[in-house]
Amino acid sequence: MSEAMTIPPLGEAPAKRIPTVYFIDDSATMREVIKIAFRRENINVITCADAASALAQFEQNRPDVVITDVIMPIRTATPSAAKSSNIRNSAKRRSC
Description:
Layout: E1 20-24, H1 28-40, E2 44-48, H2 51-57, E3 65-68, H3 77-87
Parallel strand pairs: 1-2, 1-3
Helix pairs in contact: 2-3
């Protein structure tokens, strides 16, 4: 007995999902450098100058990854990481 295997035509590869990364840093230079580097790798980057502006966008554009500077004026990055886990329960947090 033989089993038939269906092979999709070459032109019909499944669409690759583009990940979304939030980069939160009070330095405009760092935000621009990271944005350029990630976009070269075909990664959607949303940059924010502070945690509050990032949190305001999480519902519209859910992040796959959040990278943040932990030493920022006014509000530190730790509360934004905690709130982001409420938005995406499966997210893992790491401190470097």
